[in-house]
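We were asked to recover a plausible sequence for a given structure. The inputs and outputs are reproduced exactly as logged, with field labels preserved.

PROBLEM: sequence recovery
POSITIONS: 206
GIVEN STRUCTURE:
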């Protein structure tokens, strides 16, 4: 599992992953809502200060940065996130070289800060590493490692491209046939377990 990353504003030349995380941070911080709904414990809502970001990543249209507001609602999956978590979808460019072109939906998950509003700092985005690691599943599964941060931060994570609910990659298998197939069977006694080495590519002239 990777460490929690502190993020700055997106700049040309940054990796795709850093740009996505930067955009997540920007949109989460810019999400508007004056009051908390009742939480999973049924406690009354309390006033909540919302923050507006003023450093959008360069080169992206306002509709994807300060003009984008997330519609947080109760998570329906995974099962561990159905209580006390909120999920949303964020629009990002399919190709950051064409920021005004097609967009994709990035799946987000959030656990709201539990401390008093006066102590709340903002949102902290967690990236659980990879490749292929879902933040929507990772946050509920590993919350015990980060729970002390909830006193002052909303904890937010996401599914990277090709993972979970974010434009998942399909490799021809069905939903029931995507797990690990198990270890390679032991060779049958009496048969050689060696395999021939691959041949080196033959040099050709053009």
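RECOVERED SEQUENCE:
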């Amino acid at each position: 599992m990777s460490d929690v990353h502190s993020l700055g504003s997106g700049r040309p030349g940054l990796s795709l992953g850093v740009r996505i995380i930067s955009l997540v941070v920007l949109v989460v911080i810019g999400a508007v809502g004056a009051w908390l709904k009742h939480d999973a414990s049924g406690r009354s809502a309390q006033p909540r200060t919302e923050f507006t970001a003023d450093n959008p990543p360069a080169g992206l249209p306002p509709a994807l940065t300060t003009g984008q507001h997330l519609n947080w609602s109760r998570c329906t999956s995974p099962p561990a996130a159905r209580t006390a978590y909120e999920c949303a979808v964020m629009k990002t460019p399919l190709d950051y070289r064409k920021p005004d072109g097609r967009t994709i939906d990035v799946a987000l998950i959030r656990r709201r800060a539990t401390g008093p509003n006066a102590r709340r700092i903002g949102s902290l985005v967690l990236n659980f590493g990879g490749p292929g690691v879902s933040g929507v599943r990772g946050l509920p599964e590993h919350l015990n490692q980060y729970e002390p941060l909830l006193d002052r931060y909303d904890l937010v994570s996401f599914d990277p491209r090709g993972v979970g609910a974010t434009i998942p990659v399909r490799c021809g298998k069905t939903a029931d046939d995507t797990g690990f197939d198990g270890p390679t069977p032991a060779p049958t006694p009496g048969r050689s377990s060696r395999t021939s080495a691959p041949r080196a590519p033959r040099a050709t002239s053009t």
